[in-house]
Amino acid sequence: MNERFEKWLDVQLKRIINCGKVEFDSWRWKQKFSDAYQTLVLRTVKNTEIRQQP
Amino acid sequence: MSERPDKELADAAQRGDGNSFTELCGRYYAAMVAIAHSITGDKHLAEDAAQQAFATAAIKLPELHDGGKFAAWVGVICRNAANDIGRKQRVIFNNDNLSKLPAKENGSPDTSAVAVRDAISQLTPEAREVIYLRYYDGMTYQRISKVLGMSEEAINGRLRRAKEKIAEHLKRSGFCEEDIYE
Fold this sequence. Notes:
The structure holds two protein chains of two kinds.
Chain A: H1 3-17, H2 26-32, H3 34-52
Chain B: H1 6-14, H2 18-40, H3 43-60, H4 70-88, H5 111-121, H6 125-136, H7 141-148, H8 152-172
Helix pairs in contact in B: 1-2, 2-3, 2-4, 2-6, 3-4, 5-8, 6-8, 7-8
């Protein structure tokens, strides 16, 4: 592959594959997967409870 | 300001810190969408798969032994999620569900872009995945290396081989380099 062809291919791949920026919406994700998120954050409660045990 | 290392965030998330977990999700969301898109060929399904992967990761987080490998670990989960969604929706990667391309300025179809699209659809899943990671959002080799759990040199090699396959496919289908100078 020569340099010129590789540059051309780079441009083509960017045009074809780049579908625009995607952003993670943390608030929406927490709403949509509230069970999974609660499972994660409830570990804080458990950790705190364990630390507080005499 | 330098970003907090993955390990620090993943370790905090394992202790139940939701903000650290969502920071990691934000950091690797584009990469996960790129991986899933390379499997399903559909952007919306890819976003669903990436979000589902983070939900699975939130539940399975205690199973992650090295927080520094969070990206590669969630990448495996995301591939599985994308394959599941693809099977359920009966979607397979083909060049029809790649992004729609603009025509040339004179309104004629862009034959070179169509040929490249066709070549992408002929790649192996691994080759297509690395191409997507690199060109989806201009991801750095460093980030791709974390997501695939491979060295930057190995990524460079895989990327080069994938591009050579595309070039070979273009040649086989009668596309010649002069076409690019039209």
